[in-house]
Amino acid sequence: MPTAAGIMNAPLNFFVASPEKPQVLMAVTKAETNVRTGEFRHYDVPIVDARSLEPAPSLDREGFELVRRPTAMTDFYDADAIERIYYPEVIQLLQDQTGAREVHIFDHTIRVQDDGKRREKKMRPPVPVIHNDYTEASAPIRIGVELATDAAARFLAGRYAMVNVWRSFGGSAMRAPLAIADAQSLTKDDFVATDLVYEDRTGEIYQNVYRPGQRWHYVSDMQRDEAVLLKCFDSATDGRARYTAHGAFINTAADPTTPARESIEVRAALSFD
Questions:
Q1: Tens of pLDDT along 255-264?
Q2: Structural domain range at position 252
Q3: How far apart are CA 101 and CA 99, in angstroms?
Q4: Which of 12, 57, 166, 224 has its CA at 20 to 30 Å from residue 69's CA atom?
């Protein structure tokens, strides 16, 4: 069991359930803040350092896992280098960790906490709302949109999963760490389908409501050679983790000199059968 030294109490931002389907109105430019409809509320919850868990969390049980995997990347603001160098690294990482037959990367997002640097680099801020990237409806649609027809058919014919590979590449992520739920502590009622509205299309994600009994984790002092794998969807219904709620939170206990967070998340589809 985790010790007291591995636990922090911090407010996490949850959606408050309502009869109307909520929306996230996506900003036209990456540096701007998205607009969310509906009511949100902060709940102060204990967040346990995942490094203290025994056994270590796994993708199919808790819905997330920490891996140590060095990268050859020197500049994560170089989009061409990310696709040329980092994407192949992520594909190999996911195949090694999961045994996936095929891995297809959809896209990536750089998130920058510092307002000035975010606007200069034209990147998105951390997401301060607890959510999950795909839903029961949007996961197969995304497969059909992103993959060629024959590849999509292969994925959808068997078990497939959507995994987010999250890495801190700045000086520290501790001013705005990632809170991650233990999937075993979540119920289907904790997830609220939400429209993700762009100028030219509408997708769907889950936002999450708070419920006592949820178990929350973070990873302390993440290093550049570490990554967290997040299970954002799994088509299997055999008891393994299918979704992993997550979101950034402000760590008021962080040393004031701690650098602002800079991170990258790569979204990928994995085929197993």
A1: 999 999 999 9
A2: 4-271
A3: 6
A4: 12
